[in-house]
Amino acid sequence: MTSFILMSSKLSDWFKERLGLDDLPFFRTPDYMYKVDYWLGALVASAFIYTVITGLILLLYYNAQAGYNSTEFVINSVPYGSVVLYSHLYGAYAMIILAYIHMFRNYFAGAYKKPRELLWIIGVIMLILTLGTAFLGYSLIGDALATSAVDVGEGIISSVPGLSIFIPFLFGNYDAGDYGRVLAWHIILTALIGLLFVFHFFLAEHYGMMPSRKVKDKVPAVYAKEEWQKFNPWWPRNFVYMMSLIFLTWGFILIIPNAFAYLNGLPQQLNPFLNPKPAPPPNSPAAAHITTYPPWFFLFLYKIADFTSDVVIFLFIGVIIPLIYLIIVPFLDRTEYLHPMKRKVFVGIGILIVTYLTQTTIWGDLTPGVEIPVSQQVLVYLPPAIIVALGLAAIRPKTDNKGNIKGTIGPITALAFILVSSLFIIAGIELLANPTILTVGVFIPIAGIFILTTKKIAPIALNAEQRSENASVSEERAPEWKKKLAEGLVALLFIYAIILAAQIWTIPATGYFSNLFGIDLGLILLMLGEGISLYHYVIYRK
C-alpha cells in the first residue's frame, strides 16, 4: 500500500507540473468541507455528465421518425442497450432529485445572498431547463405514458390565446410517431444546460463553498484571498474527493434501474417510478388498460391543472409566481444574517414550497386528472401554512453572551414534539372539514400545547444544530488503527472490483439477463468510489 501511495503521489506531481494545476483559480478547501452536504453540486454535475454520455450513445441508435419502435430496438437488439437506456432515464431522475436537494439546501443556508446572487439565478434557470429537457427526453420513448404527457402539455399551451401556433414548432408531428422536433429540442436544451453549467461552475469556484455559520454568520459569506492560502489546494485533494462522489453516483444510477428491470407484475401506478421499461405503444389494445401518468417530476404541475379551468391562472400558480419568487429572492431577502431564525419569513416560504411541492406531487399520483374543488384545496393547503406561521412565530431562541443558543435535546422530547405536531395537524384538518363547537373545543387546547411545545423545543433544537456546526469546523484527528483498516479495505475493494470486471463480459449482451451487466458495472463503480473515498481518508485525513 505504501508503494502505491508513493506512485500515486509521483503521478499527481507529474500532472500538476505538466498542466499547471497550481495556477488554476479554483477554490482552496478547508478540512471541514469534505462532507457530502458541501458537495451536492458535484453530485448534480455527476448525474448530468453521466446522462450526457449515455445520451450520446443512445443517439447513435435512436431513430426519431419511429420513436417507440426505435426504443424497443435499443432495448432488445443493441448490445447492453437496455442498460444504457434505463440508466440514462434514471440518471435524469437522479439529476432532478439532487438538483432540488441542492437548491433547497442552499436556500435555507442563505447561499443566494450577496455576492452569490447571479450564481443562484443561474442555478434556478438550470433547474427549469433540466425539467424541460427531462420532459422532452421522457417523451422520446413514444409509449402511451409519454404521448399522454405530451398531449396534456400541448393542450395547456394551446389553451393560452395565441400560443397554439407554436405547437408544430415545439413538438412537430409527434402524434404520428415522428419525434424529430422533440429530439432536436432535447439536444438544444441539454447544450444550454452545459453552457450554463460551465459558467455556474466557475462562479462557484470563484466565490467558494458557503462557509460554516460558525466562521461567517453574515453576508458576504466568502473567504478572503488571504484566508484561502491556509486551505487545501484544489489539486489533488478536491479532485480525488470529487472522483469518489462521481463513481458512487454513477454506481447507484446503474444499479437501481437495472435491478428494477427484473421486477415483474408491478402495479400500474408504480410503473412511472419503479419500472424503467416502456409502457405499451399508444395505439395498442394494451394501452387502453393502463392509467396514463405524466412524468413523476411534473405530477405537481399536472395536478394544479385540475384546480382550475382557467389556464392563465394555472400557469401563474404553478409556474410563473414560484419561478419569479425564486429568481428575485436574493433581492427580497436583504437581511445580513444567515441563520434561519433571523430570516423567518423566507424560511417559512421555503418550508411551504417544499411541503406544497411534495403534497401536490403525491396528490397528482393518487388522483391523476381528477378535478379538485376549491374547498378541498383549502383543506389540504391551509393547515401547513398555519402550522409554519404559528411554529416560526412561537420560536424565541435563547442565547448566551456570545449569541449561541442554549439547551439540549433528547429522543423523548423529540418524540413528544412529533406526537403533538401530528395531533395538531389532525385536529386542524378535522376543524376545517367539520367546523363544530366540538372540533373547535378540541383544536384550541391542542393548538395551545403545540405552540408551548414549539417554544420549548425550538431553542434546544437550534442549539443542537449550532453545536454540530461548531464541531464541523475543526476536523478530528483520525486514529492510526482506523487508517490501517481503511488501507486494507481499499485493497479489498479493488480486488473485488477486478474480479467482478473479469467476469462481467460473460453476461449476455441482449435479453433479460443483460441487465445483470448494469448491476455488476454499478457495483464496480460503487467499489471504486468507496475505495477512492477511503484512499482520500488515508492520505489526507490528519
TrEMBL record:
The chain crosses the membrane at residues 38-62, 83-103, 118-140, 152-171, 183-204, 239-263, 311-333, 345-366, 378-395, 407-429, 435-453, 485-505, 517-538. GO terms for molecular function: electron transfer activity; oxidoreductase activity. GO terms for biological process: respiratory electron transport chain. Gene3D superfamilies: Cytochrome Bc1 Complex, Chain C. One of its GO terms (cellular component) is membrane. SUPFAM superfamilies: a domain/subunit of cytochrome bc1 complex (Ubiquinol-cytochrome c reductase) (SSF81648), Transmembrane di-heme cytochromes (SSF81342). Residues 11-213 form the Cytochrome b/b6 N-terminal region profile domain. Keywords: Membrane, Transmembrane, Transmembrane helix. It comes from the Archaea. Signal peptide: none annotated. NCBIfam families: cyt_b_SoxC. This is Quinol oxidase (SoxABC), cytochrome B subunit, putative (SoxC-like). It comes from Saccharolobus solfataricus (strain ATCC 35092 / DSM 1617 / JCM 11322 / P2). The gene is soxC-like.
